[in-house]
Amino acid sequence: MISIHVQILLIILFWNSDCQIIPRIEECGLSCSQGIHCKSKPSSGILNSFCHDAPASLSSIVLKSMKISTVMKCVQGSPCSLHLNIKGTLSLDENIRGLEICSLSLDTQQSQCTNVRFARKKSKMLNGKKVQIQFNCIEVNVAQHIYVTMKTVPNYCEVKLSQEYYVEDCRNSDVGKYIPACSAGKFDYNVDRARKIISVNVSNFLRDQDYYVRLCHKWFTCEDVGAFAVIKGKESLKSVSLKYSQLLPCLCIEVWLAIPDARRIQLCPFENDTKALWDNIVYNPATQTLAWEPACPVLVMVNLCRLTKSNDHCEDIQNSSKNSPEKQVKYSRVDTHPRLCMKFTTKQGSWVKCPFAHGEFPAWKMRTAAAAEQIQVFFTSQTKAQFSVVVCNRTQLASCESVGMHHSVSVGDSVSITMSREMCGSTICIQGWRTDVDYSVPLQTCDIHCE
User: Which residues neighbour 440 within 8 Å (Cβ) at sequence distance 6 or greater?
Assistant: First the structure.
């Protein structure tokens, strides 16, 4: 068993550190200036999601100056919690019945919406006046990434305020001291590569508090890899074992308190395990398409290349370079020669995979025969194919510069190439390749000796 033992304080280390004191509230609520009576109620956000053209008389800046901050709600006998404090200014108008305030967690994709309505009589009397709205009942988590919107009711197009906001993390001394998730203890893990099991142990528990543990693949969000496990706070054993199929660089361990929308503590310890990423190569004979799709997001340069006879070097094929941060890489009309390979290059190094090396697909061959001052070139192939032949001067390892005209050849035919004494030498090669595909391996016969 290969054991990795890492202790991680469950202190969130994301976003900027902040030493400011978070303002306290005992109750959350809604307030409106100008003596206007306003009230709020939860909303799904669906009914007000479609916008309408605004009346010509309605200014696009009827809604402005949205400001967001964090407040801490602390009630005696209960743990403190964090809330968004959202302020905005609305110019009252007879075409507006109220506001909708929504928050979307960019970590969990969960949203909360609230409708704010005004007393009609009072708001009509103050038509055109500016009213300031303050709402602080949206509960958030430590270090959460939030997207807040403020829209009119009815929802008029182009009349909207939006802002991203980062909630303070545990490095803020106030948050770290009073928010339970910041004192959640520590966890360690062990990897059994033979049995493909990761064991996770949580210590320094919050008393009698349950925890969830899961494995996930990190893309834009972290996608489930199997079901999550529960560590019971009342049980003496504080560990779980989770099975995995592959150790991938995006495989992460997540631990979080078993409370609604709790902050998830994430560790991705296998970022250098990139070897398995290069196996997912698929060839479709019907379309002659060679494709590779990453199992994880990875910054990689992909090339087609020709494996040399010594098998110690793979020369890049021209115009085959592609970058792949996330998407599938495809090459159409590909030669299935055993020496045609895919090369993957990252900051950690290069890997070469040769999907046709095992002989499942027919390969073509080039043969040469010397006679007097001519070289006879033959091609054999189990399938129909067209080829081109040229004499070239191999000045560099991956470069062979043409020194004669190109000759077109079909399978079963041959072409005779006249070789002058000036063209003979150790760097002169006969190079042939398929012309009925977009990506072909060039084969070479070098060190031509003239009689």
Answer: 317, 335, 337, 340, 433, 434
Query: Would you state the structure tokens that stand for residue 236, as one six-digit string?
Result: 């003496």
Task: Output Rg (C-alpha) for the chain, integer angstroms.
Answer: 34
Query: At CA 28, angle to CA 25 and CA 34, rounded to 5?
Result: 100
What phi and psi values does residue 183 have, to the nearest 5 degrees? -120, 40
Distance (Å, rounded) from C-alpha 247 to C-alpha 191?
Answer: 10
Strands 63-73 and 24-25, by their bridges, are parallel
d(CA 25, CA 30): 13
Do 162 and 149 form a contact (C-beta atoms < 8 A)?
yes
Whole-number Å distance between alpha carbons of 21 and 11: 18
- Contact of 391 with 406, CB cutoff 8 Å: no
pLDDT, tens digit, 9 for 90 and up, residues 59-68:
878 998 999 9
Identity (one letter) of the amino acid at 238?
K
| DSSP calls for 108-132 | T--EEEEEEEE-HHHHHHTTT-EEE
Say yes or no to pLDDT of 156 above 80: yes
pLDDT digits (tens, 9 = 90+) for 170-214: 778 888 788 877 765 578 899 999 999 999 988 766 667 788 899
Residue 228 in tokens: 């999550």
Q: Render 381-449 in DSSP notation, one character per residue.
A: -SS--EEEEEEEEEEETTEEEE-S--EEEETT-EEEEE--GGG-EEEEEEEEEESSSSB-PPEEEEEE-
Structure tokens at 344: 């993957």
Give me 402's structure tokens: 């043409």
Please give the Cα distance from 244 to 226 (Å, whole number): 8
Residue 363 exposure: Cα atoms within 13 Å on the Cβ side: 15
Cα–Cα dist 442/347, whole Å:
28
* Structure tokens, 68: 């967001």
Which residue bears the tokens 């909630």?
167
CA distance 421 to 404: 13
CA nearest 344: which of 358, 327, 323? 323
Determine the distance from the C-alpha atom of residue 431 to the mean position of all C-alpha atoms in its chain, rounded to a whole number.
42
Nearest to 25 by CA among 87, 66, 68, 84: 84
How far is C-alpha 424 from the geometric centre of its chain's CA atoms? Answer: 54
